[in-house]
Amino acid sequence: MAVTAAVLVATGGHAPRAASAPLPSAPPLPALLRGVPAHGVRTDLFLAGENFWQLGGQPRPVAEEFLLNGLSPILPPGHGAQADQLVPVPGGVVAHISDMSTGITYGAIGWVIFIPAGTAPARVIARATMIAVSPGGAQVWVQTGVQALRNGAGAPPGFTSPTWAVNLAGHRVSPVLRLPFGLVAATEAGPLTQDLSTGQLQLWNGATGRPIRMNLPADADFIAAGRDRVVWDACGASCELHVTDLTTGADAAVPLPGSWLPVSVTYPPPSASFDPSGQRLVLPIDRVDSSGNVTAEALFTASTATRTLQMIPGTSLPYSSLPAAQPIQLLAAWDRQGLLWALASSPDEGYYQLGYWTGAGPLRTFALTRGGPIALTAPGSS
User: Fold this and answer.
1) Spatial distance between the Cα atoms of 184 and 165, rounded to a whole number of angstroms
2) In a 3-state reduction of DSSP, which class is residue 100?
3) Domain 9-20+34-356+368-377 maps to which CATH number in 1.10.1740, 3.40.1350, 3.30.420, 2.130.10?
4) Model's pTM, two decimal places?
5) For residues 142, 187, 173 and 75, what is the CA-based torsion angle, rounded to 10 degrees?
6) Which residues are paired to 234 by β-bridges?
7) CB of 107 within 8 A of CB of 152?
8) Within its chain, how far is the Cα of 170 from the centroid?
9) N or C end of the chain: smaller count of CB under 10 Å?
10) Across-strand partners of 193?
11) Where are the domains of the chain?
12) Contact indicator for 275, 340 with CB cutoff of 8 Å
């Protein structure tokens, strides 16, 4: 199957080389996704991590080592980097690339790059520690100013960071606001932050920087946000996903199965995305035992219309079947054809597997592939 043009090659630096090395035959690698072999499908996906991939037919890397060893035009030789956020926008995707050589493992400042879908050159549009794309994708909110926070240290109470919006050409299109460090999303009204000390979610007016009242409990755990709604979870006697309309205050609750909890992630924001209709959400969910230990993880779709949850076939990964030191990352995103793509990645072991689901029948999977992507999206998708 044909593969679309390489990502970021036109921005300068040394030309990357394509990678086609087979996976080692020993020791044997555990299976990740379970399904039937995929054949004859075309898509337009971006994957990112220590490298970039733009995928057309059967997925394979097309920009090997672009972010490493001085090959990237935005980093000096000897600096390592990874793309830790990848967000769809009209005509492509926006990536946040952290310079990992600084020794900062939490909120490392990096570059924000718009990558067109196709052969047009990518371009740097900002520097930031966190990004959030506004609904519609015309604006990217960026937040900076955490170079002093090292090795996972939380922000002190009252810590604020310069926060503003740029367009895809890199021009600032909002005032510079002083907001709590912890940008997690952007709505039509403005940016949304989660205070790193208290966990409090707060929506801000993008023009004035003033707080906007939200009808959310203080202990709401952020999952995702859309044009005028926030998705969060709360656990008491049972756990539920909540979709709160920021305009009307109406709330829809989706019950979670017993012993299943949303994945706990502080940064980057949790991997959750809506389908093109805006009615279904896909996200990873953990299964826990009576002691609170995670025993498995799977991908689920949640319908805001029917308030039901469905596990995507073939994506449940029992932790007991994996080496103890081998973290697995599960991600999912819809492409513009409406196919739901699932990614299971083992960045430490250096391999991943992709599959897609039509909404019925089994998951359709590709072979294990070398690489360690930690972000997945389709250009211009919701």
Assistant:
1) 14
2) helix
3) 2.130.10
4) 0.82
5) 20
6) 240
7) no
8) 21
9) N
10) 183, 202
11) 9-20+34-356+368-377
12) yes
Cβ within 8 Å of residue 314, ≥6 positions away: 33, 34, 35, 342, 355, 362, 363, 365
Backbone angles phi, psi at 365, to 5 degrees: -120, 150
Cα–Cα–Cα angle for 36, 335, 365, rounded to 5 degrees: 15
Q: Is 261 exposed, middle or buried (0-12, 13-18, 19+ CB in 10 A)?
A: middle
Q: Mind listing the pLDDT tens digit for each residue in 183-240?
A: 999 999 999 998 877 778 999 999 999 999 988 888 888 888 878 888 888 877 678 8
Return the percent helix, strand and coil in the chain, to nearest 5: 0, 40, 55
Residue type for 89, please?
Answer: V
DSSP 8-state secondary structure symbol assigned to residue 145: -
Residue labelled with tokens 């020993």: 26
- Cα(366)–Cα(268) distance, integer angstroms: 27
> How many Å apart are CA 324 and CA 336, to the nearest integer?
37
The Cα–Cα gap between 100 and 109 comes to: 9
Instruction: Please tell me whether the peptide bond between 27 and the residue prior to it is cis, using omega within 30 degrees of 0.
Output: yes
DSSP class of 321? G
